[in-house]
């Protein structure tokens, strides 16, 4: 399952990334394999989404969230 498919309040564990270039940026922001991630809020039009990862809230575009594969 991709992070972009997760619903508000649900949690997942980051497994891997589908885009190498994007994965470097996401890992610098704390989205590391093995970290628990959850959806906190979704903008009215569905983009961006607010996620909780590594103890802080991060805003991601759906395109970015779709590169994160969950366990």
From TrEMBL:
Segments forming domain Ferrous iron transporter FeoA-like: 1-71
Pfam families the UniProt entry points to: FeoA (PF04023)
GO function terms (MF aspect): transition metal ion binding
Entries under InterPro entries matching the protein: Fe-transptr_FeoA-like (IPR007167), FeoA (IPR052713), FeoA_core_dom (IPR038157), Transcriptional_repressor_C (IPR008988)
Swiss-Prot/TrEMBL keywords: Iron
Record flagged with keyword Iron: yes
Signal peptide start and end residues: none
Name the record gives this protein: Ferrous iron transport protein A
